[in-house]
C-alpha cells in the first residue's frame, strides 16, 4: 500500500469527497447568510429608520452579524461532517475551515443582489444555493458510503 508524505495511506478518491463536501458546505452556509440578509431587510422595511447613534443591539444588527456567523459556522460543520471518510482530523478541519472562508467569498454577491433585485433577489440567491446543494446531494451521499 502506498503512503503519502505524512505516512498515511493514499486515497485518491478522498480528493473528490473533500471538494464536494467543501462546495456543499459553502452553498449551505451562503444560503443561510442570504436568508439572514432577507430577514434583516424585511425588518428594516417594516419599521422606521433608527436614529443615528443607535447602539448595535437592534434586531437588524443581530440578524446580519448572527446570520453571517451562523452561515460560516454551518459551512464548517457541514463540510466537517461530510468529510467523515477522511481519517485525518487535521485535513478535515483545515478543509472545513476553507469551506467557511469560501462561504465568506460566495456570500459577498448578496450585497449586489440586494441592491439590484432587493428582497426577492436575496430569496432567489438562497434558492440557487439550495438547488446547488440538491444537485450535489447524490454525489455527496455516494462519497459518504466510500471508505
Quickly describe the structure.
The chain has 147 residues and is mainly α. Helices cover 77% and strands 0% of the residues.
How would you summarize the topology of this molecule?
Blueprint: H1 13-45, H2 59-82, H3 89-107, H4 109-145
Structural summary, described in words:
The protein has 147 residues and is mainly α. It has one domain (13-45, 57-145). Helix content is 77%, strand content 0%. It is elongated, with a radius of gyration of 18 Å.
Q: Briefly note the structural class of the backbone.
A: mainly alpha
Number of strands: 0
Low-confidence stretches: none
* Element order: H for helix, E for strand: HHHH
Structural features:
mainly alpha; 147 residues; 4 helices
Amino acid at each position: 500500500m502506498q503512503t503519502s508524505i505524512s505516512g498515511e495511506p493514499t486515497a485518491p478518491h478522498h480528493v473528490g469527497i473533500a471538494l464536494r463536501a467543501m462546495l456543499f458546505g459553502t452553498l449551505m452556509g451562503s444560503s443561510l447568510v442570504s436568508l439572514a440578509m432577507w430577514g434583516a431587510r424585511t425588518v428594516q422595511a417594516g419599521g422606521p429608520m433608527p436614529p443615528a447613534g443607535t447602539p448595535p443591539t437592534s434586531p437588524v444588527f443581530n440578524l446580519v452579524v448572527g446570520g453571517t456567523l451562523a452561515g460560516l459556522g454551518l459551512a464548517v460543520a457541514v463540510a466537517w461532517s461530510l468529510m467523515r471518510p477522511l481519517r485525518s482530523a487535521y485535513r478535515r478541519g483545515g478543509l472545513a475551515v476553507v469551506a467557511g472562508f469560501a462561504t465568506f467569498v460566495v456570500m459577498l454577491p448578496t450585497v449586489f443582489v440586494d441592491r439590484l433585485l432587493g428582497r426577492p433577489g436575496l430569496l432567489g440567491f438562497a434558492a440557487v444555493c439550495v438547488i446547488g446543494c440538491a444537485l450535489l446531494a447524490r454525489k455527496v451521499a455516494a462519497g459518504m458510503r466510500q471508505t
